[in-house]
Write a structure and sequence with these properties.
Rossmann fold; 7 strands
Length: about 270
Amino acid sequence: MRIERGQVAVITGAAGGIGRGLAEEAGARGLRLVLSDVSGERLTALAETLQGQGVEVASLVVDVGDSQQVDALRDLAVQRFGGVDLLFNNAGVMQTGFSWQIDSAQWQRLLAINLGGVINGVRSFVPLLLGQQRPARVVNTASLAGLICSPMLGPYTVSKQAVVALSETLHYELAMLQSQVAVAVLCPGPVASDIMASNEAGGAATQQLDDLLDSSIRQGMDPRELAREVFAGLEAGRFWLLPHKNFKPALERRLSSILDETNPVFQMADA
């Protein structure tokens, strides 16, 4: 699919990190934008900045875990721009801690946003995209955690592996229909953001991990660099968008363990 000036991109979780990088890159390419985030203040600031650069922007404060709010985002895109060409189901939060110590509300909060937000995006937007009868792309943001597992990241890993599974299932379904709509799944490593601010800390048991993760993420790939790789991948027609290549040995070890039926052993991803 060619990314062309005038196309319409919907981006959730747009006010920071990966979402902001996608919005800035899409705007620089002349796309019209429909942006959402739970932070109205940051969303308004981003929209005003992009509009000051000549980008056409509509924005709406949305909790992606609420299906009606996601429907409202879809309706805004149609009302303002007539349709959608690119949907980025990107909104996400973090939760660390021992799996048995994370309380029910924390589990449900993370799953509602990280997984429920993608489910709501697919259910709300895919019928619209199919009905347009033209090329369109759904891009679901997962993570390296969608492909490999780590301790102390249970809810996050569960949600991201489910996003990968949903994306691959959707890929097969759209192929069955010989549709012009396609899906891609984005599985990045650390990308500079403040996602750890969304983490409900688990106390002294996780503080060292939280500090390490926060430092690693803040020093991660520049979001605009990531966005450029994402758009290149979309134009190349790729399903797997894997901007960080250094994790592949860890993935190979996991797949080998599964195929060999050996017990998994955790190792840090190769540098």
